[in-house]
Write a structure and sequence with these properties.
Elements lengths: L12 H14 L2 H23 L7 H42 L16
Length: about 120
């Protein structure tokens, strides 16, 4: 027969920390559910964004053509305004000259009207 031995177990500090970590990892069941829910929510948001992206990538080209056309129209209008401004300036100068030099033919004088 085997003599009875004193079976004492001595756990070191490292072993206790390891046991605490294992318990902590496996006791986070509620947190993993929350993380899973957040992950599903993010996946839905990504799907929604993907569904709402522009299905017509060529529309950017069309918009660019419209912008170019409008820019040409604006440039033409600016040239027209500049030309009209130049014409107005020349007419103003001509009017100033007409006002500054005496008229060769005097204006007709209207005789006074006698009243009774």
């Amino acid at each position: 027969m085997v003599p009875p031995t004193d079976n004492k177990v001595s756990l070191g500090c490292g072993t206790l920390i390891l046991i605490a970590l294992i318990v902590m990892i496996f006791s986070r069941g509620s947190d993993s559910g929350r993380v899973s829910d957040e992950l599903q929510k993010l996946r839905r948001e990504v799907r929604t964004l993907a569904d709402h992206k522009d299905p017509f990538p060529s529309s950017g080209i069309e918009e660019g053509k419209k912008i170019d056309h409008l820019q040409k129209s604006v440039d033409a209008l600016k040239r027209s305004i500049d030309s009209q401004s130049a014409r107005i300036d020349s007419l103003k100068a001509e009017l100033q000259q007409m006002r500054s030099k005496p008229d060769a033919t005097p204006a007709p004088v209207t005789p006074p009207v006698e009243r009774e």
